[in-house]
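Can anyone check this?
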Amino acid sequence: MKFFKKLFSKRFFENDIAVALVCALIFTIFLTLAGFEVGCNELRGNVLRLHILANSNSEADQSIKLEVRDAVLTASEKVFEAAKSKEDALNLAKENVGHFKTAAEQKLKQLGVNQSVTVKVEKTYFNTREYENFTLPAGQYDAVRVLLGNAEGKNWWCVMFPSMCIPAAADEHSLTEAVDEKSAEIAENAPKYEIRFKIVEWYESIINWFEN
């Protein structure tokens, strides 16, 4: 991204020709990916993700992250039972932030670990991510975020709705239940769309940089 920050500097945008070229480039990419992007937006808008950041990348902190992950997933099993849509799941997640935080804190206490826990439900930018038999495009997603300590370590993520990472529900739900046929086809056939996924990630990373 340093290249893009240098390329798209304030001085760059003071040049009308440069601005026109960038707009033309973005418009061309948009036209090329229009249909694909519709499917990507459907995916982004209909899943709720779990995002856990470890305190650091030390072996101990990474192990703690996985222990907390299991505790949060167990605590969330019954929370999303009544969710029929992503909106249901999002509302339930917001209502149960304290429940998830307590589960994480109890696990840390059991482990004898003195780390703070912050739980948020918010929009979060993700790069393109592969998960077993499906791929999610880069972009902004609603996510339950669990930040451990300094939250400077490698993260772990999964899909909470539809319930694809909750043990008790793993065999009962699939991505196709939450999105339309075209979107499911994109997610489940990533190799076929590899170049498009890369272009979308490039485009979304630029948009995310400008917004932040």
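Reply from J.R.: I decoded it. Residues 168-172 have pLDDT under 50 and may be disordered.
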